[in-house]
Specification:
The complex is a heterodimer of chains A (278) and B (248). With 278 residues, chain A is mostly helical. Chain A has a domain of 191 residues: MetI-like fold (Orthogonal Bundle), CATH 1.10.3720. Helices cover 72% and strands 3% of the residues of chain A. Chain A has a two-stranded antiparallel sheet with strand order 1-2. Chain A starts with 25 loop residues before the first helix and ends with a helix. Chain B has one domain: Rossmann fold (3-Layer(aba) Sandwich), CATH 3.40.50.300. In chain B, strand 1 and strand 2 form a beta hairpin. Chain B starts with 9 loop residues before the first strand and ends with a helix. Classes of the chains: A mainly alpha (278), B alpha/beta (248).
Amino acid sequence: MKYETDLPVMLPLKRHQSAPFPGLKSKHILAVALIAIIGPCVAFAQAPSGQESPLTVLLNWAPLLLKGFIFNLIISISAMAFGTAIGAILGLGQISLIAATRHSSWFVTQFFRNAPWLVLLFFAMFLLPFEINVLGFKIPFPDWLKAILGLSLPVMANVSEIVRGAVRSLPSGQWEAAESLAYTRMQTLWLIILPQCVKRMLPPWMNLYSILTMATVLASIVGVSEVMTLTGQALASEGGRPELLAPFYGFVLLLFFIYCYPIARFTVWLEKKYAVIN
Amino acid sequence: MSWTTADPMVSLKDVHKSFGELKVLNGVSLDVMKGDVICIIGPSGSGKSTLIRCINALNDIQQGSILVEGQEVNDPKVDKLELRKKVGMVFQQYNLFPHKTALQNVMMAPVRVLKQDKVKVEEVARALIKKVRLEGKENAYPGELSGGQQQRVAIARSLAMQPDVILFDEVTAALDPETVGEVLQTIKDLAEDGMTCILVTHEMAFAREVADHIYFTDRGVIVEHGPPETFFQNAQDPRTKEFLSQIL
């Protein structure tokens, strides 16, 4: 419902329009850098003399860890793409006029949305075969692919809810106007409803991506060679020196922070931008 | 039995409609001939909007008959899309598509629904925008237009489908007073062009000026109707009299 008014108090709150990263000042960058440096320094202070400094060790391993991190990103992007594609279909199923489609889509969505991600991951890992027989050809089904499938299940369910919520959030007048102009339901959805929904779906969708990226480390528990697995292996091969724990895991934290923080800021910026327009 | 212009274009007979327990229409009958402009007036909640929303099947009815050009609307087998190509509608809240420009709003339905040639549609659409006096606003988005301008785009959008009759559902009720006039003028132009119009309105002076026939509804029935002169000067029913005395 939109009210026409001139009263300033009745107008939507207009926030200051700003760049995506308004609050990011040099002091913040300094703080991040400090965290990155303090860890190794503390570790260095604890290091017995005669051994390589933790920083040097970390630098030696950094290229491998970075590769592992990129693998995490590949898992996150693939799971997001797959989950979004299926989730969008499921979300549209939830607003279907056919009761059976609507109810089954709702059930699948709720089932996977209310399941712990780790359990879904285990589910995918241990219930899927390690290879599939298609017409006599054996197609291998590696762990990382299972991890992608496992992680895309909760993504799918959340995307489904995002789609349903966005469609429901549009004023019913849009549907009525389209109906009265003799659009079919499909045309209404594709030409009028969904284009308007994309804007509304983008912030929660990016939020979800951020959460998914951070959840990719769960794959380490099921043995995928991503950054956490590699970190553990690197630490083991350095003889399990306790002073290495902080810099190594600090490094991993930093990688995720550098990747996810801009996404979070950009999401906030998008939310503000669209809040003012709508 | 085929429909001719000698028959009513829209004909309602004993229409009943309820939302659950709430009875909204309690046996409404009215006829609209081609080229007629009729105004439906009455207190809030008397079922005026529901009444016209039944004509293009946005609402279904429980009992009675609605014929549009001889075609029964209260029939599960009715082709609603074909019906809505004949019956245009303009809403109180304009309901323009905010992600499309004024011109695109007008062009979209003829191109996508009627599958007409885009070049020709654009020509027609520009002419319609000119007709509703919005030349120069073709590329503006609805958010950049005033309420009155948006409503005129909505009228142009409805006209682009070349309907035989247009339903106006309290189209000036959400407007600023200074923009009401421009929208009413647009409707008046249409009426003079011979467009069949069914209006739900609170603008009594306007109703008196353009309507061929006025219907007064209260509690889901038509209490009184007649041509504007007799209706406004010689209202018979006490409910009509009371309503008019409050409004005028």
